[in-house]
Design a protein that fits this description.
The complex is a heterodimer of chains A (330) and B (351). Chain A is mainly alpha-helical and 330 residues long. Chain A has 14 helices and 4 strands. Chain A has one domain. In chain A, the strands form 2 sheets. Chain A has a two-stranded antiparallel sheet. In chain A, helix 3 crosses helix 12, helix 4 runs parallel beside helix 6 and helix 5 runs antiparallel to helix 6. Helices cover 49% and strands 18% of the residues of chain B. In chain B, the strands form 2 sheets. In chain B, strands 7-6-8-9-10-12-13 form a 7-stranded mixed beta sheet, with helices on both faces. In chain B, helix 5 links the parallel strand 3 and strand 4. In chain B, helix 2 crosses helix 3. The chains are: A mainly alpha (330), B alpha/beta (351). The interface between A and B is large, with 62 and 56 residues.
Chain lengths: 330, 351
Amino acid sequence: MEKKRRFHIEYGDHGILYALIIFWLVLIITNENFRGLAFFQTILTKASLNAICGIGMTFAVISGAFDLSVASQVALNGVVLTLILPNLGTVPSILVILLLGAVMGTINGLLISKLRIPSFIATLAMQMAYRALAQLINSSPVVVDNNVFKKIATYKIAGVIPTAFLICIALGIFGTIILRKMKLGRDVLAIGNSREAAVISGINVAKTEIMIYLIVGLFTAASSVMIVSYLGSSNYGMQSGLEFTVISAVVLGGTALIGGKGSVFNTIVAAIFLISIRSAMDSFGVDSYWQRVVEGIILIIAFSITEIRNIVNNILVKQKARKQLSMQKD
Amino acid sequence: MKKVFSLLLAMMLMLTLASCGNGAQETQSDTTNDTTNTTANDTTNDTEDTSDAGGSSAGSYTIGFSVYDLSNEYFQSMLEGVEAAAEENGVTLLTHDQKSSESELVTGATNLLNQGVDALIVSPCKPEVMSTIVDLAKESNIPVIILDIGDGGSDKDAIVVSDMYGGGQIAGKYALSLLEADSVTEGEFAIIKCEESAVYAIQRGEGFKSIMEAAGFTLATELVANSDTTEAYNAMQDILTSYPDVKVVFAENDNMALGAASAIGDAGKTGEILVFGFDGNESAVEAILDGTMSGTIAQQPVEIGRLGIELAIKRINGEELEFDNPDTREIYADVYLIDSTGQPNHEFTVD
């Protein structure tokens, strides 16, 4: 019993993974289009772009907050990236973008931890500021003319495994190590469970909060690089609405919006799940208005999933207790 | 508990999916007959297409159409044109809605290519993404036709746009005929322009200018109002104070024409200065009926959609296309005048 409980806490539960596998199986059985490798490659590539950003967002949601500025961060990163890429080359440009992401994350973190602005307001304000900054820097779209850079997100190793997915998995492992094995990760979980308790137990909450948004900024920067590589272009209006896609992936992955628990890998799986649904609807020729309805329903399911889980859990616990009681009576 | 939960979730999603599919088909068959046929084609394609690997040998083609945003009336009309032409030519049509998102555009277009389409038609929400898509299509020698918006500098097979220059000319000719009726044969005119980057919109103004200058009118000024109603209002106020002799104003889109018209109205000069727009929006037609605007040039999204399918079929068959502008591979769709009665007027045409 003890062992099983630890397993549960350490890796989260795998409900979303089972759901994804069942969903894929149903697709493969019902639709010819899904029997090719190409479809899964497209899904994994596209999902990885959102998932990488979602890894960072998982930290924010675990701490009981979220970052609404990620879409604008992608736009600013993207615009700067396409400007410096022809002059600096691929690797230095990516390093500059990671630095820029870290700076934007730190600004968010300082606003939230030092000025005590609620994360919702602070990141909403920065959402506008970063996007406007992107427009100030370059208001016209840029097409990337660097084939090496464009391959980062679109190359397939041995013609099978998309690099984007590999990078996503690597970053996912990195994120899991931070969350599970490092003090920072434990502090984030502690803040999510109870900020007051974290303060009392001597955790440097302000520093941890800055670190959370720094992590969000870094992963968003990595995601920006992949997105620009995937699209082969940038413009200041790009990716608006990304924050909702990413937050729904995080929440659908079982990270509770009130904080305190979560799993990086479930976020990745949930991101793949969401993209699979979209591709499936296209393949089944679902009318585009109905697609919007379904996307709305999915969003509601995603945000109510913690509660649905609790209800199901309660019922099961009660049943178990009744069984045990009746057994004791016997 | 986990298994129960995941099963529940998966079943719920499948149910929503299934019911949505049915719902979509029902609504389609309710509205029109021709869309039902396309739906029927779609379903047969789902089951048979991959088995005969693209199906191009049998003489019936599969064409993919990725559209900007179907919540916009203009693109609904464009889709109507595409669907009608696809049905007439016995083409199986796969459609995809980008919902104004550039990642959706790339993913959707990739999915269409994966489904083995013989040609790809795209009306891109973000033109700069097109080079990525065209590169992808070229890998498997799939022709790409772009409808409207812009090509983003990509190596596409063709782009269909409304005849912007011709539309400006039609507006110019109509303006001259109205001025002649008032026995005005000389004077000044002004143009309110879209943003400098809108290459197609700028041709509208150029077309108008060419006709007016040939008739002996002089260009007072050209002001940029970034396609925006408020900015056009301010620009028009500047024109009214600096160039009191202006008789005609041409705005490169209807939103700006409306701004200019209300500035003229606020100055109490409605009717003294003719205002022309471009697009044929409903609000512009209302303004024409109110007498604040004198005319607008309407685009034909249905026609653009039809041309898309026709050109795609030609390219699949390996035919060369006849371009209106070979340098940019542009093919023009006709536009027409909506005159001061608010009705379409086909008397005025391009030379």
